[in-house]
Design goal:
The structure is a homodimer.
Chain A lengths: L1 E8 L3 H21 L1 E9 L13 E3 L4 H4 L5 E4 L5 H12 L3 E4 L2 H7 L8 E2 L10 H8 L5 E7 L2 H13 L3 H10 L8 H4 L2 H15 L9 E2 L7 H9 L2 E12 L2 E12 L11 E8 L6 E5 L3 H16 L21 E2 L1 E8 L4 H11 L4 E8 L6 E8 L2 E2 H13 L8 E5 L4
Helix pairs in contact in A: 1-11, 4-9, 6-7
Chain lengths: ~425, ~425
C-alpha cells in the first residue's frame, strides 16, 4: 500500500468536491491503485464548520502547508494568481509535489514554474483527462491540430440561443441565474478562460512553452440568433472554439466563435459540456467530451493527479520548440459573412466585385429579407480559405459601400482537417 | 534518457504500424517522455523484406523473443489464442513485460494471465485511451455504467444502412470490399468482437475478472432499414452497443443493437468510429471517441503502452468483486417492438391487451402501412422499462396472435442514465 499525504489549500467548491470524493471512494481508489490518500492539513482563510475535513488539521494560512513536514503533495485550489503562484513556488522549493486546478496561474506563469513538480489535469476541461491523453495515451503521435469547446458557459449560451432563438443578453441573464455564468461574465464570454486553457494545451501538444499573450482571443458577445439561423441553413452550428494548428509557417493559436459542420461530432456537444478533439498522425481525430467544470468533475481530475503522484507516474517535459506562434493576420480561414444591405439591384454585384478583387472565392450564398425592415436584405456568404489580413482589407471596403446599411458580420469557419 | 528494448511478435498491419510510428516519431517520443524505444528483435513466421525493421534482428519463431536477454517488453501482435497465450505466459515467466493488442486472449484467458505484467490499451477501441482513462484519469470515480460503440464494422454498416436505406446484405458486401469487414464477418456482425472488448471493460470498471461467457451477445443481422426508419421517426438511432450497468442486484453486461436518442452524443458517432461513454459519480458522463481499428490507430495505443512500461507507470489491479453478472432475463429495458399485422379492426386492441396483461406500459405508437403489402400494417411501439423475462412471455403471446403476419421484431432501448 502506497501512502500519500496531502495538504489542500482552499475550501471552495472544488476543495469540498475533493474531500467528498476521497470520503466516498477511498476504498475503491485503494483497490484500483494500491494508493491510500491521507488529507493531513486543509488551509483556508475561513473555516467552514459544515465541511468534513476527514480528520485533517486546519490552518487559516495556506503557507502552513509548506512547513507541514507530513505534506507530500500541496493541492492548490485557492485560485487567483499571486498567492497561488507563491504557494506553488514555495511547495516545489520545499521538495513537495503540486496539484492545481488553476488554469490562470499555469497559462500566465507556467514558464516560471517547475514543470516536473506540477500536475494540472483539472485546469483544462474539468473531468476530461485530456492532459493525460496528450502526454501518455497519445504519446506516440505527432499532432497537427486540436480544437475544443473549452468554455462551458459559452457553449451553454450558444446552445440555448440556437434552441430558443433568443439573444445574448437574455441568455446571459439565465446563465447567471443557473450559476453557469459569473456576475461578471467577462472571463467566460470574452474568451479569456478558454484562452488560458488553450495556452496549456498548446504547450503540451506543441512544446511552445506557455505563451498566453500570443493566443488570439475573441468572445461570443457579437453572435446573434440571426447568424445562428443562417449558419444552420448552410449546414453549420456556431461554437466557441479554441483552435490550434501546426502549419508550415508556424502555429495557429486562437479562441473565437466558429462555424462547425453539423455532421461533426464536436457540433453535437451541447450545453455546459466541454470537448477536445485532437488531430494526430496515427490516432486520427480522437474526441474527448465531458463536464468542464463543477466541484465534483474538477475533483475527479484533482484526485487522479494525487494518485499519479503516489504512483510515481512520470510528468512529461514540455519541450521548447522553436516554432513561432502566428498572429491572427497570418491565419487563413474560410469566412461566414453577413452583409446587411439595401434591397437594390446591383448590391450583390458590388460585394462580389470587392471579394473578387482580393481573390476571395465564394462557396455559398443566401440572400434574405433583412431581419429589421422590408427594404433591407442580408447578403450571407461563405468564402473559401483566405488570409485574415486580406479579408480585413476586403471587409473594410465592403463596410464602406453606400448600400451596406449595418456592420458586416464576420465569423470564421472551423478548419476541416 | 530511459532506454527500453522491445521485441515484436508478428509482422502484420499493426506491427508494421508500430515500426512506422517509432520510425516517424522517435524524436518526439524521446522529447515528450524521455524514453528511447529500441526494437531489438522482430519475430514472424514469414519475413517481409519490404518492412523496415529499424535494425532489429529477425526470427521466424516468436518464442525467440523470450530467450533474447535484451528484450524488456514483448509486444504480442500475432493474434489468435493458443500461441499468443503461450507467448504471454512465457514472457511474464521470463520476467518480461508484455504489451498486446489481442482482445480475444485477454477476454478469454485474462484470469490466467499475470495482470501486473500486462498492458493491453490497444485491445479495446484502438486509438482511444479508454483503459488509461478508466484506470488513471477517472481513478477516483465510482462507475455506475458504461456504453460503447466498440465494433467499427457494425457501426459502419448501421450508419450506411441509415444513410442509404439499404439492407444488411448489400452493406456487408460493400464493407467487405472496403476492408471494413472480414471475408467471414461473424466475429464482427454477430457481436463476438464487441463482447471481447466489453469483457475487458467490465473487468476494469467493475473488478469482476474476465467473464466473457457471462456477456449476453446479439449481433446486427436482424436489423432492417425499416426498423432504422421507424426508430428515426421516434427520435432514435439504432447503434450496436456494449452496455455495462451496475444495478442493485448485479452487473448487466450485454452486447446488442439498441435505440439511442438522436440527441445523445453517442448517437452521432458514425461510420467506422468507436466511442465509449462512462457513467460515473464525480466525472459525469465523459465520452471518448476515435478510430477503433487500423494499423496506425492501434499502433498508437501499443506505443503508449511501451512508453508506460519504460516510465515504470503502475498497472492497476483488476480487483475481484463478489457482485454477480446478471443473465439477460434479469435485465430490464424499454423495448422497440415492430409487429407486422393484418390491417384489421381490433388488432391493436389485442396487442395492447397482451402487453397490459404483463404490466407493460406503452410510451409511443406508430401504425403504418406495412412495407410489403397494402393490407398489412406495422404496429410499432416503444414500451416502458420491463424485465426481459417478462417481455419474452409477452412476445410469445404476441407472436401467436392470428392477426400477426410475421416475426415480431424486438430491439432494446439503451439505458438513459
Amino acid at each position: 500500500m502506497k501512502q500519500i499525504s496531502v495538504g489542500i489549500a482552499g475550501l471552495g467548491t472544488v476543495a469540498q468536491g475533493v474531500l467528498e470524493l476521497l470520503a466516498a471512494n477511498r476504498d475503491l481508489i485503494r483497490q484500483r491503485s494500491g494508493v491510500e490518500v491521507n488529507v493531513v492539513r486543509v488551509a483556508s482563510r475561513r473555516a467552514k464548520p459544515e465541511v468534513d475535513l476527514l480528520g485533517a488539521d486546519f490552518s487559516t494560512n495556506v503557507m502552513d502547508l509548506l512547513s507541514d513536514q507530513r505534506v507530500d503533495v500541496v493541492v492548490e485550489l485557492i485560485g487567483g494568481e499571486r498567492l497561488a503562484k507563491e504557494l506553488i513556488v514555495g511547495a516545489t522549493a520545499a521538495g513537495k509535489a503540486v496539484v492545481t486546478a488553476n488554469k490562470a496561474v499555469i497559462a500566465l506563469h507556467g514558464n516560471d514554474l517547475s514543470q516536473q513538480h506540477l500536475r494540472y489535469e483539472a485546469a483544462v476541461a474539468g473531468a476530461i483527462p485530456i492532459i493525460q491523453a496528450l502526454q501518455k495515451g497519445l504519446v506516440g503521435n505527432r499532432f497537427s491540430g486540436l480544437s475544443g469547446i473549452i468554455n462551458g458557459t459559452c457553449n451553454y449560451m450558444l446552445s440555448a440561443m440556437e434552441d430558443e432563438g433568443v439573444g445574448f443578453d437574455d441568455i446571459l441573464q439565465r446563465a447567471q441565474a443557473l450559476g453557469y455564468a459569473e456576475a461578471d461574465p467577462t472571463f467566460d464570454v470574452d474568451g479569456i478562460d478558454a484562452a488560458h486553457k488553450l495556452t496549456i494545451l498548446m504547450a503540451l501538444a506543441f512544446g511552445t512553452g506557455f505563451e498566453f499573450p500570443k493566443v488570439y482571443i475573441e468572445g461570443i458577445r457579437a453572435i446573434t440568433p440571426v447568424d445562428i439561423g443562417y449558419a444552420a441553413e448552410l449546414g453549420y452550428r456556431i461554437k466557441h472554439l479554441g483552435i490550434l494548428r501546426n502549419t508550415a509557417v508556424g502555429i495557429e493559436a486562437r479562441v473565437h466563435p466558429a462555424l462547425v459542420l453539423q455532421s461533426e461530432l464536436v457540433a453535437n456537444v451541447n450545453g455546459v459540456l466541454n470537448a477536445v478533439q485532437v488531430v494526430s498522425d496515427a490516432a486520427g481525430k480522437p474526441l474527448f467530451s465531458g463536464p468542464g467544470a463543477g466541484g465534483a468533475a474538477t475533483a475527479s481530475a484533482v484526485v487522479a493527479d494525487i494518485v499519479a503522484w503516489a504512483e510515481g507516474a512520470a510528468t512529461s517535459a514540455t519541450t521548447t520548440s522553436a516554432v513561432p506562434v502566428l498572429s491572427i493576420e497570418q491565419v487563413s480561414s474560410s469566412y461566414y459573412l453577413r452583409i446587411p444591405s439595401r434591397n437594390e439591384p446591383g448590391v450583390f454585384a458590388e460585394v462580389a466585385q470587392i471579394l473578387s478583387s482580393y481573390d476571395i472565392s465564394i462557396d455559398a450564398v443566401i440572400q434574405k429579407d433583412g431581419h429589421e425592415q422590408g427594404d433591407l436584405v442580408d447578403i450571407v456568404l461563405l468564402t473559401q480559405e483566405i488570409l485574415e489580413a486580406r479579408m480585413n482589407q476586403a471587409a473594410t471596403e465592403l463596410q464602406a459601400l453606400a448600400s451596406v446599411t449595418g456592420e458586416v458580420m464576420r465569423i470564421r469557419v472551423a478548419p476541416q482537417d
